[in-house]
Design a protein that fits this description.
about 80 residues, about 65% helix, mainly alpha, elongated
Length: about 80
């Protein structure tokens, strides 16, 4: 169900928005609807991205725990690495 929304916009901004809408073969109303839809979806995308990062972190931690690679003592210094 669509709801009406009243906005106050600077005249110059509206003029430019109309030009953009014309170039995109759409209306200013549709531009605003698309923007608000995108804005409303950002929170959900952020939640999904956070969940993906957490899952990736858990996978890495599991790999580190289960890895059989042993790293010996560090026998070099930073200066050794950059010695010319």
């Amino acid at each position: 169900m669509l709801k009406n929304l009243t906005l106050s916009v600077d005249e110059d901004v509206l003029r430019e928005a109309r030009k953009v809408a014309l170039d995109r073969n759409t209306s200013v109303n549709q531009l605003v609807r698309d923007y608000l839809k995108q804005l409303a979806g950002e929170k959900e995308r952020q939640k999904q991205e956070a969940a993906q990062r957490k899952l990736a972190q858990k996978r890495l931690e599991k790999i580190f725990r289960e890895s059989r690679v042993k790293i010996g003592p560090i026998t070099w210094t930073r200066d050794d690495l950059y010695e010319r």
